[in-house]
């Protein structure tokens, strides 16, 4: 009964498009973080990888928005990307009203949301395709990167379907999508991750290094999947390091 009630709640509140807005309204300009929680492209895990991030960013003088992108049906692509683009365009429309420094925005993603953020930072699948600004930095926590052997099967199934064509598989595998003009990227992974193989982040880091893209890659022994900010764990402090990386890349004050 509890499982059915939880599923009903998730179906209603976590599978449609909407935005959780955490906009600082003190009349001063603030940087903007756009956050894509994970959930295996099956639902959106805002309570651990959305809201806590946004609240912490607010305390650091940063406005934030958590994107609830449509998901939960097999073969969703490009629906989540459509929704992320819609969110960025909404932020652009209100940038003066909400005092947002949109040109220096960072794009955050965890798990499957990390795949969404990482792929949206490519020209072919993301910002250029949709005509929105390029992120100043991409922040990825234990992301799904590849759609091949080391993938998270559920994420691949819900994004690409049961038997995706090879062309789409490769396009959606970010180890093949990194170019020299890819945004600066901060990525971290727990080596105890039992859901998304840490090899995903390693593949990304290797591609970033090969293409000469500014990046920071961190791993943490014994840290499992879905830990969010990770207070009290070996990864504690990754959040502050990520914000500092973004500030340095975007030359934020």
Structure, explained:
The protein is an alpha/beta fold and 253 residues long. It has one domain (31-250): Rossmann fold, CATH 3.40.50. It is built from ten helices and seven strands. The protein has a seven-stranded mixed beta sheet with strand order 1-3-2-4-5-6-7, with helices on both faces. The longest helix is centred in the middle third of the chain and has 15 residues, at 79-93. It is globular, with a radius of gyration of 17 Å. The termini are far apart.
CATH fold node name: Rossmann fold
Count the DSSP helices. 10
CATH class: Alpha Beta
Indicate the structural class.
alpha/beta
Which percent range describes the beta-strand content? 15-25%
**Share of helix, binned:** 25-40%
Principal-axes geometry comes out as globular
Distance between the termini: 51 Å
Order of helices and strands: HEEHHEHEHHEHHEHEH
The major beta sheet can be summarized as: 7 strands, mixed
Sequence stretches where pLDDT stays below 50 over 5 or more residues: none
**Any idea what the CATH architecture is?**
3-Layer(aba) Sandwich
Computed over alpha carbons, the radius of gyration is: 17 Å
* CATH homologous superfamily annotation: Alpha/Beta hydrolase fold, catalytic domain
Q: What is the average of the pLDDT values?
A: 93
């Amino acid at each position: 009964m509890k499982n059915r009630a939880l599923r009903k709640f998730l179906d209603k509140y976590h599978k449609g498009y909407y935005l959780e807005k955490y906009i600082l309204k003190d009349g001063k300009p603030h940087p903007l973080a756009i956050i894509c929680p994970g959930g295996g492209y099956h639902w959106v895990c805002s309570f651990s990888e959305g809201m806590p991030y946004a609240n912490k960013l607010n305390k650091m003088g940063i406005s934030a928005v958590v994107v609830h992108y449509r998901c939960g049906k097999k073969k969703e692509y490009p629906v989540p990307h459509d929704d992320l683009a819609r969110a960025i365009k909404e932020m652009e429309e209100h940038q003066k009203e909400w005092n947002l420094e949109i040109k220096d925005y960072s794009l955050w993603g965890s798990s499957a949301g990390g795949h969404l953020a990482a792929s949206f930072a490519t020209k072919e699948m993301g910002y250029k395709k949709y005509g929105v600004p390029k992120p100043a930095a991409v922040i990825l926590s234990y992301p799904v990167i590849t759609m091949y052997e080391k993938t998270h099967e559920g994420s691949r199934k819900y994004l690409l379907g049961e038997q995706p064509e090879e062309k789409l598989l490769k396009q959606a595998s970010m180890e093949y999508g990194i170019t020299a003009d890819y945004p600066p990227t901060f990525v971290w992974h727990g080596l105890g991750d039992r859901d998304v193989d840490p090899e995903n982040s390693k593949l990304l880091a290797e591609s970033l290094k090969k293409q000469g893209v500014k990046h920071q890659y961190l791993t943490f022994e014994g840290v499992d999947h879905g830990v969010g900010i990770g207070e009290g764990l070996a990864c504690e402090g990754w959040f502050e390091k990520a914000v500092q990386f973004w500030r340095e890349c975007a030359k934020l004050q």
